[in-house]
Amino acid sequence: MPHSSLPAVAEILRLRAPLSLQVxxxxxxxxxxxxxxxxxxxxxxxxxxxxxxxxxxxxxxxASSAAASTxxxxxxxxxxxxxxxxxxxxxxxxxxxxEALVTEHPEVNWGALRDRLESGADVAVxxxxxxxxxxxxxxxxxARLHAEKQRxxxxxxxxxxxxxxxxxxESEVAMLRxxxxxxxxxxxxxxxxxxxxxxxxxxxxxLKEQETxxxxxxxxxxxxxxLGAPETFGEEKLRQxxxxxxxxxxxxxxxxxxREIEAVVVHPGGIAVVExxxxxxxxxxxxxPAAGAAExxxxxxxxxxxxGEVLGAVRVLQKAVSLDLVYLPVVAFQGxxxxxxxxxxVCLTAEVDLAVDDLLHSQTSRVSADxxxxxxxxxxxxxLPEPPSGF
Length: 391
Hints:
By secondary structure, the chain is α/β, with parallel strands linked by helices.
């Protein structure tokens, strides 16, 4: 018979008596004391408790005094896994809750508790601290559910907005077609009507592309948005490589001011502008001089000035977004290349993520989350499903 549970029963009845058997069992369950009804009745019948109205239990006066004189139990000891299990959450969530409690309850040294738990040590935790921790977990779960609800509502609003835009576009197209049927009798208006219909068709195509283009979370913890399917082996390799960047936002095939930039990488250390050229590794070594035409084993390339191409793309992007950020021009080839000068990073397509991450991590200036969101908004791409992390 678990008479070791008697102090927990006495504490609950001292604070909240009288209680029914059902409510008392539920309160004990909240303290991780699991008893059957027969076990609880045995404790109540032998521990100095009294039954008042039918089914309502209280402390007997003598039992109350005895319970009051009973010394408080020693704090239980936990490691990270067992404390997370006690709180009913994963270890990562428990650490986040401890961070939040630093400001909510500064009277407890939560930082020291977190450090010792992360080190793998067993830590003594009082009942009061456990209570504060459990309350913090409940608030964390409420906040998480509230955030999920807000995101779902925002997605619903965005879907409704797109539906309305689609309906408006279809309505305008129907109206223009009706006008065209009426004006075909006048030859001098036929060209104008064709132009107007073409413009509406372009609007529908743009709307369709906007609906299908979506951000994809990468395994490395970043986000990737492909505004056009890869057309070559090199473009697919570039997509795979940039998808390895951690905490980076990658937009492929970006239309900017009348031209298309192959990749724009929004990184905490700066903005990388990437142009990739499909020159197979078996073709030879590409030579990219500081000035003049690029060559491969003495033969001219189809694109004579890849350095100038990517620098031009950087200038177009800077003018379009008007943000004071660090920009890194990158030229990628599938095979080896020799390059002069330091104004452009020249690297292998398969290693572009390592080269970009290494250079941008060395920058002293940083790109904030607000800068990243503002730049994406200037590019006119769909909103991120959630705020960028790592910025």
